[in-house]
Amino acid sequence: QVQLVESGGGLVQSGGSLRLSCAASGIIFSIYDMGWYRQAPGKQREQVASIIRGSMTNYSDSVKGRFTISRDNAKSTVYLQMNNLKPEDTAVYYCSARQSGMIKRSWGQGTQVTVSS
Predict the structure, then answer these.
(1) 94 φ, ψ (degrees, to nearest 5)
(2) Contact status, residue 89 vs residue 67, Cβ threshold 8 Å
(3) Which of 42, 47, 73, 114 has a Cα-to-Cα distance from 90 of 20 to 30 A?
(4) Rounded to an integer, what distance in angstroms lies between the CA atom of residue 1 and that of residue 8?
(5) Quick check: helix, strand or coil at residue 89?
(6) 3-state secondary structure (DSSP) of residue 114
C-alpha cells in the first residue's frame, strides 16, 4: 500500500514562506517520481512542481523562481519550499507519487495553504 502524508500547510501572510513536506511509505521511494499539485476552489488541479529521475525538476510558470522542490531519499520525503507567497497560491496542495515507467499515480490527502493579503 502506498501512503503519502502531507504536512506543513497553514495560514501565512502575503510575502511569507512555508515549507510543505510529504512523507511516503509503502514504496521504494528512490524509484518513484514525485510531484506537488494544487487545487484552488472552483479550479482544476494543476501541477506545481515535480522531481523526476532522481533530480530533474520542473515548475509551473506561476511558481517558478519562488518555489523549490527537493527530495530526501533517506527519509522518503519530498519537500516544497514556498517563498514570496501570494494570495493566488491559496489552495489545497497535494503530494503525488508515480513509479518510473508507470501510469498510475498515488495521492496524499492534501494540506491547506492559505495566503492572506
Answers:
(1) -120, 140
(2) no
(3) 73
(4) 23
(5) helix
(6) strand
The C-alpha cell of 11 is what? 495560514
Grid cell of 59 as nine digits: 515548475
Residues 6+ apart with CB under 8 A from 32: 24, 97, 98, 99, 100
Cα-to-chain-centroid distance, residue 111: 10
**Which residues are registered as beta bridge partners of 5?**
23
Interatomic CA distance for residues 63 and 35, integer angstroms: 14
Q: Which letter, b or e, does each residue of 35-50 get, where b requires 16 or more Cβ atoms within 10 Å of its Cβ?
A: bbbbeeeeeeeeebbb
Please tell me the distance from the alpha carbon of residue 64 to that of residue 48, in angstroms, as a whole number: 9
Q: Are 82 and 17 in contact (CB under 8 A)?
A: yes
CA dihedral 92, 97, 101, 103 (to 10 degrees): -50
pLDDT in tens, 15-41: 999 999 999 999 999 999 999 999 999
Over residues 45-64, the pLDDT tens digits come to 999 999 998 789 999 999 99
CB 23 within 8 A of CB 109: no
